[in-house]
Amino acid sequence: MTGLVSRATRWARLLPVIAASTALMAGATHAGPVEPIRLGISGVMSGPLSVIGEDYREGAHLAVEQINAAGGVLGRPIQLFVVDNQCDPAQGINAAGNLIFAHRVAAFIGSSCSGVTLAVMPVIQRIGIVQLTVGSTNPRITEQAGRGGNIWQFRMNIDDAIMARGTSELLADEARVAAIIAPDNDFGRGAADAFRANLTSKGVRITSTELYTSGQPDFRPLLSKIKAANPEALVVVADAPDAAPMAQQFVELGMSAKIFGRGSVVSAEFVRLVRDNRIWNGAKEVNRWAPSNSRFEQDYARRYGRPPRIHAPLPYYGIHVLAEAIRLARSDERRAIRDALTQVNLTFPELGPVRFNEFHQAHPDMFITQLRDGAVVTLGRRPSLAR
Amino acid sequence: MRLVLEQVLNGLTTGAMYALVAAGLALTVGVLRVVNFSHGDLFMLGGYLFWALYIHLRVPYPVAALLMVPLMVLLGIVYQHVVIRPVVRRAWQVQLIATLAAATMINNGVIWLLGSTPQSTPTTLSRTIVQFLGFSMSAQRLLMLLAAPAVFVALHLFLQRSRIGQAMRAVSQNREAAEAVGIELPVMALWTFAIGTALIGIANVLVTPVYTVFPAMGLMLTLKGFAVMTVGGFGRVNGTIFAALMLGVVEALGAGYIHSGFTDAFAFIAMVLTLLLRPQGLFGRKVGI
To answer: Candidates 2.50.20, 1.10.3470, 3.40.50, 1.10.15; correct CATH number of B2-277?
Structure first.
């Protein structure tokens, strides 16, 4: 008995030591590497439009590097995962699945391709994760998002309904007969529909709407058909890799219609590909961003050795918007990010206001740009919503 | 009527491109019975090679044009040695996997080395606008229209009249009998790929200045190459050339008068109709090129 009591007393004296040691070890474990905040980006990393994906990756990476250098978000670094959606809806769903299940991201920036964004929207609704779109412009995305629709879908960029309205005002001042050429996908069809509606409402006669496959080499059959109807203006819905051969063949055919772009027609990338400042000199385009020697552009040039192309800024700002939402939520939990995004109220000097309305659509400014002798000139900047 | 003629002319230039690319594919199938799924990617590689010579190294166009053919022949010989020689006597499934793998590696290799940003190679000829039969086009496109038939005639004469051409035709008709009389299959395989890639090199010189080059462009070219080969007669070079020109015209007229959204579909509609109505193709024979 005496032995037992003695043993029990010995253990009793050891208990505080054991407890203190355990607490210390737990504290040491807790002070280990910080769990990063995992964010994703789904880009067009291959195919004829892969230049957009490169811009997405570079813009987003720059934002992540800057945020992490400043201490991260909630004291945690951001870890960015980039996947390839090939601008194809089926591949886009796979890419989103990769981000959600393999990389376990808290939220992600969606594709620039409207078809991919629309295809992924049911997935994010089923899983419950935010897709922040910074490039897709089909108006249906907003029609299906927010109140009464997909509460996980947010769009930061202005859509084709807004840009078509702006471009149509410019065109209607200069021409009364126009044709439209657009890619045969959700982006192109959505833009073409928006342009047709706006131009018609302004009394502009549309001679035809021609569709092409992105990456196709020869546009002459379509341009010949357009030329036969002799429009005064041509609305070109195209990114630079498609616009460049189209422009060369436009010149080959001796066409002279005024060009109004939608995509990245008026862009440094277009100028680089056509290698001739005379081609489509004077073309105008309403876009979501224009070069202005901003702090972002200077940082980008320092980081990558060249100025940003037109698709790089919005993913950069998109990462900042997601970071702000995580700060407001004080959490990287998916539902918390979604709820916090509805409270985000930022203004970027080179972009405009970013505040999501009930349909989760923001309305930064729109920029009127023109190609002049190989340079992109900003003619004006206006709010995309009447204030 | 003028628009119809213009569309026919547009179609012939597109068809010439298809024909230059698909002729090499038909040769490979006809002589070696190998379906090369990386044929379009070899064209893509040639496009980047031309870009490197003309834009990056600033080699004058005539010199770049002369260099492209031997460089592509060299590429073809290397490709034949590495990818085709090990599988030329194997089952078609093995050949399919080997050439598909090669296509993927070429594609991704270009992306890894050069990125996936498209490149353009406009030349002085592509910027010079001329009038041909009353229609406006670039001098480059006119060169394409005039040079392509000359290349096809030269190819036809080579296959019909030269000893190598006759040997290739013998192998295409009966491989075992040809080997029995001393024609070496490995040598014929080398010649086949050398000629096929030479044709690709000529196509690059003529065509690349009016289009852009990007890594993913090879797949659709390969698929359309198979489609025109099916329509023209599997492994039949002349039939493939005719079908390619016809397809170009059909695509142009279809885009102009039916719906531009179906342009790519016409090739495969034609292929399906041919398989249903005349499986051997328009000029198909049971054996030989």
So the answer is: 1.10.3470
| ipTM for the predicted complex | 0.87
> In this predicted model, which residue has the larger pLDDT, A345 or B3?
A345
The answer to whether A37-158+292-365 and A161-287 have equal CATH topology is yes
Give B253's contacts in chain A (Cβ within 8 Å): 221
Of B261 and A349, the structure prediction assigns the larger pLDDT to A349
pLDDT in tens, A210-244: 999 888 888 999 999 999 999 999 999 999 999 99
Q: Which CATH superfamily is domain A161-287 in?
A: Response regulator (3.40.50.2300)
Q: Does A217 touch chain B (CB under 8 A)?
A: yes
- The tokens of A150 are what? 């997909």
Which distant-in-sequence residues (6+ apart) come within 8 Å of A48 by Cβ? A214, A215, A241, A242, B118, B212, B214, B216, B217
Are B217 and A241 in contact (CB < 8 Å)?
Answer: no
Nearest by CB to B7, which of A45, A47, A224? A224
On whether the pTM is more than 0.90, the answer is no
For chain B, where are the alpha helices, taking DSSP H only?
Answer: 2-32, 39-51, 61-79, 92-114, 124-127, 139-161, 163-173, 175-180, 185-207, 218-232, 237-257, 263-277
- Check CB contact under 8 Å for A274 and B120: yes
